[in-house]
Fold each of these.
Amino acid sequence: MAGGIERTIGAVLRIGVVTSSVCLGVGLALSWLGAAALSRPLFQIGVLVLLATPVARVVVSMIEYIRERDWTFVMLTAIVLAELTASAVAALLFNRRL
Amino acid sequence: MPAVTPGLELIIFGVGVLAGGLGSLLGLAGGVFLVPFLNLGLNFSFQRAAAISLCTVIATSSSVSAARSGKQLINLRLGMLLEVATAAGSLLGGITAQLVAPTLLQKLFGLTTSVIAVMMLTRLNRRNVIIDPTASTGALGGRYFEEESGCVVGYQVKRLPLALTASFLAGNMSSLLGIGGGVIKVPVLNAWCGVPLRAAAATSAFMIGVTATAGAVIYYGRGQLAPSMAAAAVLGVQLGSWWALRFASRVPAKWLKILMAVVLIVVAMLMFTRPR
């Protein structure tokens, strides 16, 4: 039943976690070699890719449910995306107050 | 927060290996060990410790679920449904964490680890639920290949409102305390909602990535996430859980649970008596 979507999700998660781990690992190695200017952007990219991976997974699931015309689950994944967006908005608001 | 030095990053990497290893042996994300070490051991503020821990939770969730995809052990539909509740809980928890005193968070953490320790001790011999292979799985249930019995088993999800409530609570604790929240969801799904332990653990591990992201984004926006520390912790935890998954079968689960329960009780006492 869910074989296709499960594989797609697996691929998204794998790409995300490998990309972020490589960025963080190379960043850490560079910072130990004293190249802080090079490592800092890699850390930022690594963390952002890490945070974006679960979001991408929800987006991909939603697209898959739209294709299957499974409207209940399209709605559920849309709510999760709205909640994730709300936490990003909350983060920006907290940032503003500082 | 202590100054960023290669030495400190190395220590955090090592702690990550330990937390990730112990965590995956016990079916946890490891945050429950990482947070107290960063907070009490290395003097990170509670929020900074939680932020780093949430990053490791996301990484664990992504890599474990990627490895399990295609095996039908993760109940995607149940996971996506319960995520609505965990993400809402996590969003509220992340905002609350910015508004309450760190000492209160420490007490809450102590309370949570005490409860986990007691649960571990009372569930020492519990391995799985009995499943009727002929039963209908309903709209949210699932089927998967069980290695122990060598056949495909099915299950039905019961008491959905309870599962949703537990998920909301788990999401809330996740972003407040920097843990995954599986310690709350998995026992509830297993004991009361009819989900076999393996499926419950896999589905929970799948969900905690989204849960932790909703919380981590708020810490990140607030500037409480030190990227190089997160890098060291994430890589350490990844290495630790990879190592544990390869050698997990050789460790007797019962003694490990007793040992961990003792560690958690000590953590709880430290959190109560040494507020910073």
Note: Chain B has one domain: 6-273.
Amino acid sequence: MLPVITGFIDELREAGVPVSMVESIDAMKAVEAIDLASRTALRETLRATLVKNLRHERAFDTAFDVYFSTVPLPSGESDGSPPADQGGEAAGGEGGPGSGDFDPDQLFNALLNALAGLDQEALRRGVREAVERLAGMEPGRPVGGTYYLYRTLRRLDLAQLEAQLMEALSGDDDLTEFEERLLREEVESLIERLREEVQEEIRRRLVADRGREAVAKTLRRPLIEDIDLMHATSADLAEMEAAIGPLTRKLAARLARRRKKRTGRLDFRRTVRRSLATGGVPADPQFKHPRPHRPEVWLLCDISGSMATFSRFTLQFTHAMATHFSKLRSFAFVDTIDEVTEFFGPGIDFGSAVSRITTEAEVVWLDGHSDYGNSLETFHTRYGSQLTSRTTVIITGDARNNYRPARDGILADVAKASRGLVWLNPEPIAYWDTGDSAMSHYGRHCTSVHEVRTLRQLEEFVETLTLPSGRPRQNA
Amino acid sequence: MHFDGPTQVAESLRSVNYLADDRISQVVFLASRLDKPVLVEGPAGVGKTELAKAMAASTGRELIRLQCYEGLDEAKALYEWNYKKQLLRIQSDVDHDWDTISHDIFSEEFLLTRPLLAAIRATDPVVLLIDEVDRVEVETEALLLEILSDFQVSIPELGTMSANTQPLVFLTSNNTRELSEALKRRCLFLHIDYPDAEREQLILEARVPGLSGHLAGQVAKVARSIRSLDLKKAPSVSETIDWARTLIALSVEEVDEDVLGDTLHVLLKYQSDIERAAKELTSTPAS
């Protein structure tokens, strides 16, 4: 057992999950205390001791499936005897693969009955046969099994299965639209369960074929915080959304923080009141609390085509920030700029905000290719006078200007008029200033410039962000 | 409290109407076996705090609760010297010299115990609940580390006080911010998510007296359906329980579109969410 667990921990680390020395020792100790016959017990024990972040659970589950997969029963013996004495509707005795002839309809019905009756055993048996018969797995091929999954499910005709399940579960009454919806969701969750079973069965066979390490390596995917934002899929983005909330809260706290100086002025009233309890000896001076600093944030997002995925991410970020900052103004630009603050008002969901930005905001002036120079100039003439020494300006974009004039002098003015100017660039640092990128022209006027290609880097940015605590006043 | 296995934990929790799934009972079992704190995370209202309360109720232990908030400090979480009593002591005693007195006033008599110290000093084993630990600042988290790993508190004037009995510790977090690695390392991690429809039905049946199995099933399915929508705040388990209670109060036997439209505000707390759910689930939009 021990070598398997160390192997498993290595695989988790390989996949990017941080597992400390102490945690691995805890896992070993915990495993000694549990009933090893139960796979669920083992799974939850390892999960509780090794994975301390919800975002890493997917990686954990994949690795666990591979490392602790039950050994697949050799075909022929698997379905031959046990189902025969269990009788029952599923996979009925002689239909087993051992007998050679294969009846797709019978398998279909077996699965249907297993799902409708919530019979886990029968489902597993059906799935085993389905994979055996339909996946067409070829030993030795270094694949992750997605193709086999697709192939099995396609041949199973899920749409038909879904329709029949609906029928089987609805009984004979006519359903209202509402009842039908609830039932459909019920059926969808059953189909999802079937999908998971099939996937697990396929993985089990892959592991038996090629061994744990090899399969784990094929299945390894980057953690959500390491996915390149420029190439994230919409499923990835949806998953990131959960992580963005806490991050914006932290950013709010960072920006509100002031360098700790003397706490406010002496609060005479409170000092006297407190010292009464002790008869005035000793008196403990009380100070007024300094007023909390209300950060003002202006966010400028490049939403041009080249930035499609990243801008979706930054808009998500903006949306989340709108709930934490009362004084957040957001702007979107392509070759000119428009304010989009109102689209992110309270109670507006993200989808409709994005569609309103794309339809209503005037961000295209000429041809719809990025023009940072013009956008900045428009920004400065229209809104520049409203910048104050409390405003932090954050610009997100790749600074690819299509060889148009950079007009970075304007940015210097913006930086001067605000508390701080931060630029987040989703491109790797190595690509900055190549081709039409004008990053260094803009960068020299910024308080700080950050490469933000992944969620992790955004986290680092938030973690390390320090801004001057308000500029010295010229005429105080 | 000694459990032989996770099933026993589940049974014990069931006796106080808390339905634990495999994951919950396994982690609680491990916590009691390995004497480690449990960090419980998950969306609001899925029964994180309830778990600690149920553990206390089912094992007959006292529940000591520390509610965290921004600005929580040592004096409110660990201990404080009873300053006024110390002063009285000094003033009432004029015969002894300073050395005796100064030695005297830093004794346990003058110590005000706060929840964390109370949990450690308790003579009978207790359940310690540190609620919403994500609300304290990162710096304050450090206060907890000593007690979580060694079950002891160091007081400079008195020395180290270690636990008389092993408390069962639960920390809850709504994950509004990332907790420090140091804290996480010392805990077992338990994520509780919304239950699936079958388990939610069982929870409803256990928690709401007089609820028929059929209605419970419907309520659970509607809850699942609503949670699949993109909402500002998905209905929590406690809200579905409230909803089931409402349905009983209205003597509803069958959930249909009208009932749902009229009672959605029990499940959802934002107007925009109510409108959206009404649009998706019923053919007539809510007023």
Note: The radius of gyration of chain A is 30 Å.
